[in-house]
Amino acid sequence: MTDFSSHRPDWWRQAVVYQVYPRSFADADGDGLGDLRGVTGRLPHLAGLGVDALWLSPFYPSELADGGYDVADHRDVDPRLGTLADFDALTAEAHRLGLKVIVDLVPNHTSHRHVWFQEALAAGPGSRARERYVFRPGRGFGGELPPTDWQSVFGGSAWQRVPDGQWYLHLFAREQPDLNWDLEEVREDFRTTLRFWSDRGVDGFRVDVAHALAKDLTDPLRDLDTPDLVGEEALDRLPPGTHPFYDRDEVHEIYRDWRRVLDSYTPPRTAVAEAWVPGVRRALYARPDELNQAFNFEYLQADWDAETIRTVITDSLATARAVGASATWVLSNHDVVRHASRLMLPPATDANAWLLSGGRAPRVDESAGLRRARAATLLMLALPGSSYVYQGEELGLPEVADLPVEVLQDPLWEQTGRVRKGRDGCRVPLPWTTTGASYGFGAAGAWLPQPPYFARYAVEAQDGVQGSTLELYRTALRLRRKLLDGEELDWLRDTPPGVLAFARHDGWRCVTNLSREPVPLPPGEVLLSSVPLGDSGRLGPDTTVWLAGAGTY
Could you tell me if 32 and 444 are in contact, meaning their C-beta atoms sit under 8 angstroms apart? Predict the structure, then answer.
């Protein structure tokens, strides 16, 4: 068996990384908001779960215009979440428990409260301070029109006018002005940031919106002529690498520069790109001289269909292999509907419409959703490469789709004119105990209300309970350490319709029934199943099993 222990410099190739959204993980000071000391106090949960690393979503100073991704200082801690000393204590305790630490890096933009942007507003047009961002005069007789038709991911124009008449670019919220990565001063500042956290013991970085840093800022700026399209839809309309602000070829110069910084440490620091681009283009970010890995969102977005998922797995492994990277797999994160709910939605369902209905159109069968989520998890954990687990999925948490609109915090709600409900439903604070003001999240209430049914999903309710989702994750991760080797799989032939089956090294197999009917269970010793199998000799719908011993279907 290959040793993918934390002592290897390439530990990340087959790691299981647990994403912590700090404000919703654990609250140590009782103010209703999760904090770093809360995370530190709950690290034994992660160590006991069996993950290799934790990824901390932003904990930097922020007014929370975008859940912490509006960063006012990339080299400090938000006072509501703690101090740098708290961060150091968290890192030291994580390392003592054998856990690596990955932090979020947000390089595309800053908060409008960042000292640089405040200087830019004060300095006025033509100043050096404004060069750090993307300021332009408007169009029209009096400059009253935005410089281009570019649209914000959060809705509306990607340009905001300031009192002196100029406009600045914000691909996300207006409180998140985009940086100008053509400027060497910006590049050097982020080299400093990489060193700052690496010197404090950080093992790696998750790079937010990695595909958007390089932009074609040649005047006159060009319109897209498809302002209603954003993200991958917009990329599909232009030759690869030529979009004015997404996935430009020049962005890779930035990450090759970063790799020199990351490789100056022993062991080298790792990084993973959040790049919402097609697979072949995404793999470029994961080349050995760039960021090591890139998130594979095709798997997250795939319908619960055997042929669809088989194609995604095959293509993902091939594109990663082509650049010498390992594949990545993820089912949930802080930006999407939790997969215990999402996987039960009919294909082509508008997730936002479902959220606006409060989760009632269509209504999701909670137990069926959990069954499917458990099957999807065991399938993911059997795949070669790294798995990223979002906090609470080890408890089987569903999406909280019926949050009242008056408690919503996500800026998407207001910035889209209250037509997109946003991402709060997957960010509701975790339940640790079956009772208490916030089910053990903290001494008082939580910043987003937890539904009463969270009590039955609490860690306390599942700890040591045979068959619970928490114990399934613990068992699966323990077995994964023993079983996982190499980065190849072999698809088994002659499987029943709707069944995915593949063999890993030494012949152990993973079989998932995505059909609606029971199928024969292949021969072999059952190592683990997503739900109890019974003694019928059949594999039920929405069930995954790991089998020892070589064999065919």
Answer: yes
Token code pair at residue 48: 């006991």
Q: How far apart are CA 17 and CA 48, in angstroms?
A: 14
| In contact, 207 and 274? CB cutoff 8 Å | yes
pLDDT tens figures, 266-322: 999 999 999 999 889 999 999 999 999 999 989 999 999 999 999 999 999 999 999
Closest C-alpha to 546, from 382, 306, 314, 309: 382
Q: Which amino acid is at 154?
A: F
Beta-carbon contacts of residue 220 (< 8 Å; ≥ 6 apart):
none
> SS3 for 251?
helix
d(CA 92, CA 37): 12
Question: Has this prediction a pTM greater than 0.90?
Answer: yes
Q: Which of 236, 241, 240 is nearest to 216 (CA)?
A: 241
DSSP class of residue 179 equals B
First to last CA, the chain: 25
3-state secondary structure of 69: coil
How many Cβ atoms are within 10 Å of 238's Cβ, its own excluded?
14
pLDDT exceeds cutoff 90 at 549: no
| Annotated active-site residue in 274, 298, 487, 542 | 274
Q: What confidence tier does 8 reach under pLDDT thresholds 50, 70, 90?
A: confident
Q: Are strands 543-548 and 509-513 parallel, antiparallel or unpaired?
A: antiparallel
- Read off the pLDDT of residues 125-173 as tens digits, 9 standing for 90 and up: 999 999 999 999 999 999 999 999 999 988 889 999 999 999 999 999 9
SS (H, E, C) 304-326: CCHHHHHHHHHHHHHHHHHCCCC
Catalytic residue among 35, 70, 203, 208: 208
Q: How many CB atoms lie within 10 A of CB 31?
A: 14
Q: Is 185 a catalytic residue?
A: no
pLDDT at 351 (0 to 100)? 95
The residue-averaged pLDDT of 480-493 equals 92
- Helix (H) or strand (E) segment spanning residue 525: strand 525-529
Single out the residue of 524, 521, 512, 527 nearest to residue 551, CA to CA. Answer: 524
Q: Which helix (H) or strand (E) holds 412?
A: helix 411-415
> Is 104 assigned a catalytic role?
no
Q: Name the strands in the sheet holding 159-161, side by side, starting at the edge strand that comes first in the sequence.
A: 135-136, 167-169, 159-161
**What contacts 140, CB < 8 A, 6 or more positions away?**
none
The dihedral of CA 168, 174, 177, 178: what is its sign? negative
Q: What is the rounded distance in angstroms from the CA atom of residue 399 to the CA atom of residue 355?
A: 9
- pLDDT band per the 50, 70, 90 thresholds, residue 231: low
Q: Provide CB contacts within 8 A for 273, sequence distance 6+.
A: 207, 210, 211, 255, 282, 285, 286, 290, 291, 293, 294, 295
d(CA 477, CA 463): 15
Mean pLDDT of 81-91: 98
